[in-house]
Amino acid sequence: MKFFTNKKVFTEMISYALVGTVNFLVDFSIVNILMYLFKIYSGKFLALFNIISFFAYSTTGYFLNRAFTFKSHNSSYVKYVTVLGISMLADSLILSTLTLYNIFNINKILWANIVKLFSFMVTGTACFIINKFIIFKE
């Protein structure tokens, strides 16, 4: 429980969330542009769109987290991208699977974006813990 009451950790979590918001906007924008251009809103091609957006948001996130969140100069870009790559695969699996099951029968574009937000939040939480204790450890 001490982990969540530590001021430094709390500040890192807030900063990570802000960087995550920037990453999400980059990711969300690229995926939506690709959905619009190709008129594909569900299934395995969303995983491909996710992989394309991954390259943009992973690079942005690494430099922002290194400079502002964890203030680390000893971190490894390769390790960071590996963690994010695994996260992106999980995110792509969630996205490509859940978009096939529009249980609320809402607009397919809205459903794809709701699933995208959900998958990003789930994988983002796991990434914070891994980045905090492995990639950017002091």
Automatic annotation (TrEMBL):
Domain GtrA/DPMS transmembrane residue range list: 16-136
Highest taxon of source: Bacteria
Principal cellular location given in the protein's record: membrane
Keyword Plastid on entry: no
InterPro entries: GtrA_DPMS_TM (IPR007267)
Protein's UniProt keywords contain Transmembrane: yes
Classification via Pfam families: GtrA_DPMS_TM
Protein's membrane topology: Multi-pass membrane protein
Keywords assigned: Membrane, Transmembrane, Transmembrane helix
Membrane spanning stretches: 13-38, 45-65, 77-101, 113-135
Cellular location(s): Membrane
Protein name: GtrA family protein
